[in-house]
Amino acid sequence: MAGGSSNYWEDLRKQARQLENELDLKLVSFSKLCTSYSSSRDGRRGDSSSDTTPLLNNSTQDRMSETMSVEIEQLLAKLTGVNDKMAEYTSTPAVTSLNAALMHTLQRHRDILQDYTHEFHKTKANFLAIREREDLLGSVRKDIETYKSGSGVNNRRTELFLKEHEHLRNSDRLMDDTISIAMATKENMTSQRGLLKSIQSRVNTLANRFPAINNLIQRINLRKRRDSLILGGVIGICTVLLLLYAFH
């Protein structure tokens, strides 16, 4: 009976040591994964072409961390069960004489279980804090980029509005210049018309006062009309001759 009990105890201790070794490896890997998760975000905030940038993206690391968390929790549960069996064994009457040594061994395994449990929860909490912080920073960076992009569009629109406003100002300035030229031309023509009327009035006054001058003016006007008729006839004849010559 004692031999069978001793073998049972040794089997439990063997299971406990095996689970503790697996937990130790898993916790080291889990800690490295959490550290690389933070480093990957830092690398992406820096130069994305750097050789130190991790190959795994954050979504892959999230899935790996969740998987490793489940595996570690399962190992902790198994180690807890083994420790409970060891505690039951130490309380049996058959091992009373060895109770002190067994309790010392059991306490050492319990301390290891407690340390691993504490380390796991601490690493997991740190990982969740890092992921939450990085998600928040990522959201802030996204908002900043969106704002910058929107500001660029707004700046472009503002630039177009300013150009269009400048075109309108130039058009208004040209219109004002055109109106000013038209008004000046109108004033000059009015002034010239007044001057011509004044000259005509003086000529008529002189003609009325001096009949000889009036007679001379009428002859001049008559000759001008006659010359115009003669010139028109000559031009008409030349035109007809040119047409006839062109057709022949």
> Over all CA atoms, what is the radius of gyration?
56 Å
Coarse shape: rod-shaped
**Strand content range:** under 5%
Protein structure class: mainly alpha
Please outline the major beta sheet.
Answer: none
SS summary, helix count: 4
pLDDT < 50 runs, ≥5 residues: 42-56
- Helix share, percent: over 70%
Whole-number count of domains: 2
Mean pLDDT: 75
The total strand number stands at: 0
Terminal-residue CA separation:
150 Å
Q: In sequence order, what are the helices and strands, one letter per element?
A: HHHH
Membrane topology: Single-pass type IV membrane protein
InterPro entries: Golgi_SNAP_su1
Region (Disordered): 36-66
GO molecular function: SNAP receptor activity
Short description:
Component of several multiprotein Golgi SNARE complexes. Belongs to the GOSR1 family. With about 250 residues, the chain is an all-alpha fold.
Walkthrough of the structure:
With 248 residues, this protein is mainly alpha-helical. It has two domains: 2-151, no CATH class; 204-248. The protein has four helices and no strands. It has helices spanning 2-45, 58-90, 99-209, 211-247. Helix 1 (2-45) runs parallel beside helix 3, helix 2 (58-90) packs antiparallel against helix 3 (99-209) and helix 3 crosses helix 4 (211-247). The longest helix has 111 residues, at 99-209. The N and C termini lie far apart (150 Å). The model is unreliable at 42-56 (pLDDT under 50).
